[in-house]
Task: inverse folding
């Protein structure tokens, strides 16, 4: 395997950044995870736009022009011979003597990319659905920035794993679900309406969330973008999570409550199929 680090393609086992990189010292950086299908990145435009926005919000700049970055991405995928998998990309504020304020503008950002095969939900997860646990949302107030500062997400995901669940749904102070640790949260109401939290600083603008919204609209499904509570979710007809790696994965249990009859719902199944067709189409383009 090969990793890209600041202009060089290095053997994965030897690839690293400096001990004083601000990503390591302060989690002062942002990232993207992009699905690869047929050796091609899926929804690349959306990921690039979100990356530029995350950087801008943190007063950072793109480490290279977007077109050059796309070439490096393709090269990393090619050198790792990934057909179906993920590309990981991270930009930090660079390496400099440890001190909280930004380093001088002459300090170059660090750009790292890796790619690997696999990383798709197992067929058992798709067929049987997954469980989620609910946890208090302990993250900062700018969850719309895809920052590498993921400690609360890591703690919550481990809590899910310890409980035998796949994901943790983080809950705000008013009892409303914000999102998963690396996924957006959805429910389907009794009358078949899709519900997901609207975009603001509370959640990450998932690229898959956006694709699901488009696919749902094309399929004539009704969507409401509004917050929902844990209680509403437990009483819902269906629930699911969306992300680059999870696609649209059915949720059949929230804490100790089964959703409906405990089997994946038909609307989630429909969205899963539509999303699979979307990535198959994009991968073949
Ligand atoms: N929410 C959070 C907190 C995430 O970290 C992610 C992805 O990593 C998502 C949602 C889903 O985003 P996407 O669909 O772009 O993968």
Result:
């Amino acid at each position: 395997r090969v990793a890209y680090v600041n202009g060089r393609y290095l053997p994965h086992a030897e690839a690293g950044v400096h001990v004083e990189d601000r990503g390591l010292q302060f989690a002062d950086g942002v990232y993207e995870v992009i699905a690869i299908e047929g050796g091609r990145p899926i929804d690349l435009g959306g990921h690039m736009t979100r990356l530029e926005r995350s950087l801008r919000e943190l007063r950072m700049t793109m480490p290279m022009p977007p077109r050059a970055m796309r070439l490096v991405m393709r090269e990393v995928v090619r050198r790792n011979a990934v057909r179906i998998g993920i590309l990981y990309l991270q930009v930090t504020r660079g390496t400099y003597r440890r001190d909280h304020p930004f380093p001088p503008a002459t300090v170059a950002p660090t750009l790292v990319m890796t790619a690997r095969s696999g990383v798709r939900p197992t067929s058992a997860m798709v067929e049987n659905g997954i469980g989620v646990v609910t946890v208090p949302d302990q993250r900062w107030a700018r969850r719309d920035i895809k920052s590498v500062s993921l400690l609360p997400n890591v703690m919550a995901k481990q809590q899910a794993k310890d409980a035998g669940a796949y994901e943790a749904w983080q809950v705000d102070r008013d009892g409303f679900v914000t999102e998963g640790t690396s996924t957006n949260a959805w429910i389907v109401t009794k009358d078949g309406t899709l519900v997901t939290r609207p975009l603001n600083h509370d959640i990450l603008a998932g690229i898959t969330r956006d694709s699901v919204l488009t696919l749902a609209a094309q399929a004539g499904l009704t969507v409401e973008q509004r917050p929902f509570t844990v209680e509403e979710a437990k009483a819902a007809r269906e629930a699911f999570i969306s992300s680059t790696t999870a696609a649209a994965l059915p949720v059949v249990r929230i804490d100790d409550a089964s959703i409906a009859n405990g089997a994946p719902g038909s609307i989630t199944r429909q969205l899963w199929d539509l999303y699979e067709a979307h990535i198959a189409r994009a991968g073949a383009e």
Observations:
- Residues 37 and 283 are 5 Å apart (CA to CA).
